């Protein structure tokens, strides 16, 4: 399957150049020029990687990067023309995986995209307080080991990779049983139930899992506006 690279760039000529080179390298691309629409788009479409220009009309690239990090672990490469911004980009606060300075060679950008994708594949998936170590099937919430079984881990991993999107039972079944084994819908529900219980025990102070009726399951991280430090809530919408 072709991986989708999101290009966030307000200069059409530059965006076109990146698009052409990335397509030639076998990637699908999508271009956004307006900084204000990036975060909702990412939540909806889950790209494989984002090339994010720092200077955008509407919203600053660093601000967008921080916002994306509250709901997604998608690799981000920042692009900047301001040398003095590099310290800020390198700082832990931005959450980007790499940066590139303008002017750049599009070939170098393609090489960096490939390198970041290679590096982040199989690396721990981190979304707010939730950390999924994909090599060891280890899930922790705020540093607390959730003690998940392999099946529970795979379910959580799949839901995390589709943050904000509804996953049907069929998709969840396919994610945990790639051998096309036939399992009852109830099997998924029972795994999810145990998973929710384990997640709740990892953060017993508050109710952060909730259910709604509908078509599948959804993992969503919500910002709790009531806290001084934005604290993230892990939320499951369970839909029947
Ligand atoms: Ca720009």
Can you tell me about this structure?
- The structure is a single chain.
- α1 (about 10-25) crosses α5 (about 105-120) and α6 (about 150-160) packs across α8.
- Helix content is about 35%, strand content about 25%.
- The protein has a 5-stranded parallel beta sheet with strand order 2-1-3-4-5, sandwiched between helices. The protein has a 4-stranded antiparallel beta sheet with strand order 6-7-8-9, covered by helices on one side. It has a 4-stranded mixed beta sheet with strand order 10-12-13-11.
- It is elongated.
- The chain folds into 2 domains: about 5-120, Response regulator (Rossmann fold), CATH 3.40.50.2300; about 125-240, Arc Repressor Mutant, subunit A (Orthogonal Bundle), CATH 1.10.10.10.
- The protein has about 240 residues and is of the alpha/beta class.
- The protein has helices at about 10-25, 40-45, 60-70, 85-90, 105-120, 150-160, 170-175, 185-200, and strands spanning about 5-10, 30, 50-55, 75-80, 100, 125, 130-135, 140, 145, 165-170, 210, 215-225, 230-240.
- The site of calcium ion (CA) has 5 residues, from loops.
């Amino acid at each position: 399957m072709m991986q989708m690279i999101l290009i966030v760039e307000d200069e059409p000529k530059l965006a076109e150049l990146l698009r052409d080179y990335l397509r030639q390298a076998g990637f699908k691309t999508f271009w956004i020029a307006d900084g204000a629409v990036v975060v909702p788009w990412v939540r909806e479409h889950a790209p494989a990687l984002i090339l994010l220009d720092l200077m955008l009309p509407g919203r600053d690239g660093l601000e967008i990067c921080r916002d994306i990090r509250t709901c997604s672990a998608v690799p981000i490469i920042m692009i900047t023309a301001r040398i003095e911004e590099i310290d800020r980009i390198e700082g832990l606060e931005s959450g980007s995986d790499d940066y590139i300075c303008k002017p750049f060679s599009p070939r170098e950008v393609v090489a960096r995209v490939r390198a970041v994708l290679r590096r982040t594949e199989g690396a721990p998936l981190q979304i707010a307080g939730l950390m999924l170590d994909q090599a060891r099937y280890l899930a922790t919430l705020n540093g607390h080991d959730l003690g998940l079984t392999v099946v529970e881990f795979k379910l959580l991993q799949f839901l995390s990779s589709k943050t904000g999107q509804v996953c049907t039972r069929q998709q969840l079944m396919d994610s945990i049983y790639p051998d096309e084994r036939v399992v009852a819908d109830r099997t998924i529900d029972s795994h999810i139930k145990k998973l929710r219980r384990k997640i709740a025990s990892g953060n017993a102070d508050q109710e952060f899992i909730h259910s709604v009726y509908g078509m599948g399951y959804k993992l969503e991280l919500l910002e709790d506006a009531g806290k001084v430090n934005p604290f993230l809530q892990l939320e499951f919408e369970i839909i029947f």
